[in-house]
Design a protein that fits this description.
Elements: H1 27-30, H2 34-37, E1 41-47, H3 53-60, E2 66-69, H4 73-76, H5 84-90, H6 92-112, E3 119-123, H7 126-139, H8 145-161, E4 168-173, H9 176-187, H10 195-212, E5 218-222, H11 227-237, H12 239-242
Helix pairs in contact: 5-6, 6-7, 6-8, 7-8, 7-10, 9-10
The structure holds thymidine-5'-triphosphate (TTP) and magnesium ion.
Thymidine-5'-triphosphate binds next to α3, α6 and α7.
Length: 244
């Protein structure tokens, strides 16, 4: 938890109710050269469902040199009145491809969202969407090989032609049973997320984080602990970045 006097508090949160791909486009930044834009660091917060990513992002909103961009779940649950997330859970074989295609588009919009601060922290990435979620759907037979091939062709094109690079990953890691307990607490027993799914995702996420370590720094935070402890961990590990 940041202490009084350490920073001035100023909330910058984007993406929660936005209609355009990115509402936060301060003119000062848009007029900057491409070289300047590379000075902005992008950190992605990754981790299993229910691990506490959104809560950590809410804490980070308070630092004035950070712009926080939450996962665009509001778009996934309302595309022209259609709840794609619900459709995907109710009939994954029918809707996984449609859902993951839309996730890929909306995550690209998040990556391309320009910010006026030196640090951009976003919830998840286009990379985990395909390499963790779509991969799990493929492995569990809910996504056909040809559907994955289409997602991958798009992904490849996006990586080559768009700005989706990241500078570091913060991986919130918790026991999957703890994640499931938190989901139950939040959504109640009527949740459509099966515990088995949370356990399988955990295993794929762990393997992915290890692989990603070869490309970018991956900081693992023990998220079994209370949110306060997670925030303290975050604060002490990244104080150089948080207080500039
Ligand atoms: P999460 O953001 O992981 O759910 P959360 O908000 O509960 O997590 P946290 O408490 O850590 O903030 O994901 C939202 C939903 O989107 C979840 O049901 C999983 C689903 N999802 C996919 O099915 N495929 C994807 O590619 C992504 C990125 C999410
Ligand atoms: Mg979340």
């Amino acid at each position: 938890m940041p202490q009084k006097g350490v920073r001035t508090w100023k909330t910058k949160i984007v993406g929660l109710t936005d209609l355009s791909p990115c509402r936060y486009r301060p003119q000062s930044l848009i007029s900057q050269s491409k070289r300047d834009r590379h000075l902005i660091k992008t950190i992605v917060v990754e981790g299993n469902i229910g691990v506490g990513k959104t809560t950590l992002l809410k804490y980070l909103e308070h630092f004035e040199n950070i712009t926080v961009i939450p996962e665009p779940v509001h778009k996934w649950t309302n595309l022209d009145g259609n709840n794609l997330l619900d459709l995907m859970y109710s009939n994954p074989r029918r809707w996984s491809f449609v859902f993951q295609s839309y996730v890929q588009l909306t995550m690209l919009q998040v990556h391309e969202c320009q910010v006026g601060t030196k640090l951009k922290v976003q919830e998840r990435s286009i990379h985990s969407a395909i390499q963790v979620f779509a991969e799990h759907l493929l492995k569990s037979g809910k996504l056909a090989k040809v559907e994955m091939a289409v997602l991958q062709a798009w992904y490849q094109y996006i990586v080559e032609h768009h700005q989706v690079e990241i500078d570091a990953i913060i991986y919130l890691r918790a026991d999957p049973h703890e994640c499931y307990t938190r989901i139950l607490k939040r959504e109640g027993q009527q949740t459509n997320i099966p515990e088995k799914y949370v356990v399988e995702l955990h295993n794929i996420y762990d393997a992915w984080a290890q692989r990603k370590q070869h490309e970018v720094p991956v900081f693992i935070i023990n998220a079994n602990k209370s949110q306060l402890n997670v925030q303290l961990d975050m604060y002490f590990k990244f104080s150089d970045l948080l207080i500039q």
